[in-house]
Design a protein that fits this description.
By secondary structure, this protein is of the alpha/beta class. The chain has 17 helices and 13 strands. The two termini are 24 Å apart.
């Protein structure tokens, strides 16, 4: 019986892990494999036995991690015990680098026969490159989601392989006009989608900024409609007059919007795949931002910009993430529609750069090769 264990820390990681597990079941019969995980509802639905629900883990900066340190340390001890008992053939780590890199170190000593795979590794090329040494020393295989990552990691001694981004195959395809009709958006209306983040800390800092910007813009362009993406941490009272979508509609909002105001993260790449113009923003406490400035290695944070190689959509960080800046940029776009069309074309280029692979399928094949009796069989 083959055994695999997943460790994820966020909803997106849970989704990616579930897609990967579904692909593994296509090439390793279910009756021959047991899957356990720190994960959420997606992994559970895919067939994994959930040891700990990852919805309790999401945090974004060092201050949030410190405030929950006792929980993380307890979880680490419990996880190591579970792994020692379970003795997986493969341990798959996804996102959650502060925790997962510690686990990789300890598992390599505790269970030297367990193969450690980091699927969609931390963005060390952007900041905190010291983590590359940990990936090289403790991970048997690093499966990269962005085209340039394989070369970056291999140049630093990491056994890395580019498998593609799973986001493309996880995104739903929609009839844009039909969705706009569902949302009550008339043909003459403009729709701006607000994504203040999914974590409490992100929403605390970003939602007031986006709401104030929407007020400023609506005073000048009354035909604009605003909708807020759903997140469990959003308080409906805080949203004021702007409607918060029901669960399950966030991808629809990415597709249906004319413009998106996004908190920096994976959602920026999802928006790029829908070719929707966006403004990327981030605002947090000063300690987190200072550490980011200290450790960053590139001058861009948005994935569309990083993949393209230059800033094709605006980035508003910390003190620049003001209602006035959102208002001014959006107003200028609306007065010059050709600018929006230019951005759409550039985002299409970004999409073309990352759509050549089925990431979950590729990752499953690579992981299967790590299991001894499957090593000689490589599915083409």
């Amino acid at each position: 019986m083959k055994k695999i264990f997943f460790v994820t820390g966020e909803t997106s990681g849970d989704m990616h892990a579930a897609s990967l597990l579904n692909e593994l079941y296509k090439i390793i019969p279910k009756e021959q494999m047991i899957a356990k995980a720190i994960g959420g509802s997606h992994l559970k639905d895919a067939g994994a036995d959930i040891f700990f629900n990852s919805k309790h883990l999401a945090s974004i900066g060092i201050t949030e991690v410190i405030s929950r340190l006792f929980m993380y340390l307890n979880l680490e001890r419990e996880l190591l015990f579970q792994l020692f008992i379970f003795r997986p053939d493969v341990l798959v780590l996804i996102d959650f680098p502060g925790f997962n890199l510690r686990i990789a170190k300890k598992v390599k000593t505790l269970l030297p026969d367990t193969k450690i795979v980091y699927y969609l590794p931390p963005q060390v090329w952007a900041w905190n490159q010291r983590r590359t040494k940990i990936l090289a020393k403790y991970c048997d295989l690093v499966l990269c989601g962005l085209p340039f990552e394989e070369k970056f990691h291999k140049g630093r001694g990491v056994n890395a392989c580019y498998v593609g981004s799973p986001i493309l195959h996880e995104l739903e395809k929609f009839d844009r006009e039909k969705i706009r009709s569902e949302f009550g958006i008339k043909k003459e209306d403009l729709l701006i989608g607000l994504f203040p983040g999914s974590r409490k800390s992100e929403i605390y800092f970003m939602l007031p900024v986006l709401l104030k910007a929407s007020e400023l813009l609506h005073n000048i362009f009354p035909q604009i409609k605003f909708l807020i993406a759903q997140a469990p941490a959003i308080n409906l009272k805080e949203a004021g007059k702007v409607q918060v979508l029901l669960p399950g509609n966030n991808y629809k909002l990415l597709c249906a919007s004319d413009i998106l105001w996004l908190t920096s993260g994976t959602v920026t790449l999802e928006a790029a795949l829908y070719e929707t113009p966006m403004i990327l923003g981030y605002r947090g406490n000063m300690i987190n931002y200072f550490l980011y400035l200290l450790l960053k290695r590139i001058n861009m944070v948005g994935l569309p910009n990083i993949i393209y190689g230059e800033k094709i959509v605006p980035e508003l960080l910390q003190n620049q993430a003001t209602p006035e800046n959102y208002y001014e940029i959006t107003k200028n776009w609306l007065k010059k529609p050709e600018e929006l069309e230019k951005i759409k074309k550039l985002l299409k280029t970004v999409k073309e750069k990352i759509t050549d692979k089925n990431a979950s399928r590729e990752a499953a094949l690579k992981i299967r090769e790590l299991i001894p009796e499957y090593k000689v069989f490589v599915l083409k």
